[in-house]
Automatic annotation (TrEMBL):
Keyword Glycoprotein attributed: no
UniProt keywords, alphabetically: ANK repeat, Repeat
Pfam families hit by this protein: Ank_2
PANTHER family: ANKYRIN REPEAT CONTAINING (PTHR24173), ANKYRIN REPEAT DOMAIN-CONTAINING PROTEIN 16 (PTHR24173:SF74)
SUPFAM superfamilies per record: Ankyrin repeat
Source organism of this protein record: Microthyrium microscopicum
InterPro entries: Ankyrin_rpt, Ankyrin_rpt-contain_sf
Protein name as catalogued: Ankyrin
Length: 168
């Protein structure tokens, strides 16, 4: 079946809506109709991809379907004037969706140098606050475990828009 540009745009928009509704069945159906570039298209005022939206909301099965369909786990979401360079893995960590963090790590998600810097800061705060599951996930994601020995009482994730750490 040949789709025109408008048809592809509609499928991409429908996929994004199904992701936001956590509708795995429709997501899987639409994934059979969409091309790789359209799978990674950006939507909404935050310009999220479908994968970033699923990781943000904690939708593990939708995340799994998108990754298995080839969604790019390395796409960066730059937020505002002071971008935090959030990819799928950092988004899941930031929102404490540890099941998604584990899945993405198993699927091969990586952090670039700036992502590692942010994750190291997140790990320091998580260790200081006793969130050991978060620390384990971050260490598994290639965060430097030595950062746990460099706890800085004045460090905060708030400066990076990452103020959601809490005890598990």
């Amino acid at each position: 079946m040949v789709l025109d540009f408008y048809g592809l745009f509609q499928i991409s928009e429908r996929l994004f809506e199904a992701v936001n509704e956590n509708n795995v069945d429709i997501v899987n159906e639409l994934l059979t109709q969409i091309s790789k570039p359209d799978l990674d298209s950006r939507h909404g005022e935050c310009e999220e991809t479908a994968l970033l939206a699923a990781c943000n909301k904690g939708y593990l099965e939708v995340t799994r379907s998108l990754v298995q369909a080839g969604a790019d786990m390395s796409i960066i979401l730059d937020r505002g004037r002071n971008p935090t360079r959030m990819n799928a893995l950092l988004t899941a960590v930031d929102h404490m969706h540890l099941d998604i963090v584990r899945f993405l790590i198993e699927a091969g998600a990586k952090l670039d140098d700036k992502g590692l810097t942010i994750a190291n800061q997140m790990a320091r705060v998580a260790a200081k606050e006793g969130c050991l599951d978060t620390v384990q996930c971050l260490v598994a994601a290639s965060v430097n475990p030595r950062c746990m020995n460099e706890l800085n009482p004045g460090s905060s994730m708030l400066g990076h828009g990452l103020g959601r750490v809490s005890k598990l």
